[in-house]
Amino acid sequence: MKYLISHQTTYTYYEPVSVCYNVLRLVPRNTDRQLCTSVSVKIHPEPDSLQEYEDFFGNKVIYFSIEKEHARLSVKVFSEIEKRAVAAREIGLYGNATIESVKQQLMDNRQEVGDIGQYIFETPMTAWNEEIAAYARDSFRPGRSVLEAAGDLMRRIFSDFRFTPGFTAVSTPLEIVMRERKGVCQDFAHLAIACCRSVGLPARYVSGYIETLSPPGVEKLIGVDASHAWFSVYIPHLGWVDFDPTNNLLPAEQHITIGWGRDYADIAPMRGILLSSGKHGLSVAVDVRRMK
Question: Is pLDDT of 292 > 50?
């Protein structure tokens, strides 16, 4: 299966901007489930400098600066993705690994698991309180397998929380999401990660896209898709297993990965600094389409 992804970000400035520096994380990475066959990045105005590199987590990063006066910034990223056919995992005994056994294996094999340990500690965006820890314990009960517990957590978030665009911002604390029981995919991913880490399990934030399908006979509109986020739990010998609490399903063919990190801040689509005295407007249009 192949996909063509278009992601357009447009900033409109009410006062001219003399210079801006930006970091872009919108190039999908290669995984065992997908291959990024081509990428085209179009930036207007033309950047005065541009560099490409991989960050600490292996995500593709594009840094660019514009050092001339401009009133509008447009960034378009076009990617072609080929989903790989992956053999079903041999779950076996590892799929029955309990929380206690996973934590013990991580302790006993610290050198082998390498940087997995960094996904255990809380961050400002995944900080938990006692209410969140108690919510986690309802799923991660003693003696239960991590796979079963994480799946149960995914289902509970899907049932207990309402998807409400515009209610939260990137800086909204999880305690508010927990109290109000609503948010968006980033919030649900952060909540699940906080729950996993509160019981000592490594979990990471995954950024990407999900293909949306129109009802039969209705043509899909261009630009109506959006960035998506989910969480992933690490189990020794089995690896990272993805869960999508927004849709209550295990990510598969319709999920396209951009990258991952400890939370949203590590894989934010676009961040920058600009010199200007005025406000600005932002618009984002995303389109995910299957290629024939």
Answer: yes
